[in-house]
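Predict structure. Chain length: 296.
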Amino acid sequence: MSIQTEPALLRAAIATYPRTRALKEGQATSPLLRLDFADIPVISRAFAPMVRELRFDVSEMAIATFLQARAMDRPLVLLPVVLAARFQQSALLCRADSDIKGPADLAGRRIGVRAYSQTTGMWIRGIIAEEGGPRPSDSRWVTFEDAHVADIADPPWAERAKPCQDMLAMLRAGELDAVIVGNDMPDDPGLRTVFPDPAAAAEAFWQRHHIVPVNHMVTVSRDLAERRPELVTELLRLFRASAASVPPGDRGPPPASREALRPVIELALRYMPGQDMLPRPLTPDEVWNGLPAGVE
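Prediction complete.
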């Protein structure tokens, strides 16, 4: 007589996207596990609790945060699942009346960003330096939060805004020369992009690298990966099943394997040391440590 076992219940922090909707709404299911989704309206608020407290079994994670966590030997395992990826150039804003004509004019300027470790900021700083613009240390970075990973300090060319200051208000008042925003672009005719033609800049990036920069992926606790590797394999199946019904974007579907993601990881690891974002070097292979055998 076979013994029926209850599916494992995993605590999860995942935002709702077209590619995760079937998973979150119960259309993609598994006999092996169930996901108990935390109610987190702004998913970035889950990253610090996951890195610092292992509050979840499964959590969405910004790629820059994960790479810093890996460099600090936090017990997390990265899964080859992309939840958010986009070209970044439209996220760098200045006032419409600014004398900034392009990224080359950012040397010596004050640039606001939620946190120096923010993934969008990492991509934008790397792109600007790669294109011959000012290095990160040539500008002054005004931050509003710590890194999600404990003991990751901002570099000397960053300073903290005063408590209760608002980044966009500081930009409009002229206290900042430019800002980096996230997913939510302000609808404000008084602001414009620093890149004169963000679409053309994105196309130039694509021609150089043939990747779309990745913002968010999925992590699990190392304990889960070691104790129940079959659940990690099943998680990958669920995420891929949930994404299968969504038409691919203009550049094709997001990468869904370690090999396909290698160029993204390599570029992030090339950009981050020049921005003083990693406490020690990482190799692309080290990034995937802990992933159960056979998972591609």
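Summary: The two ends are 35 Å apart (CA to CA).
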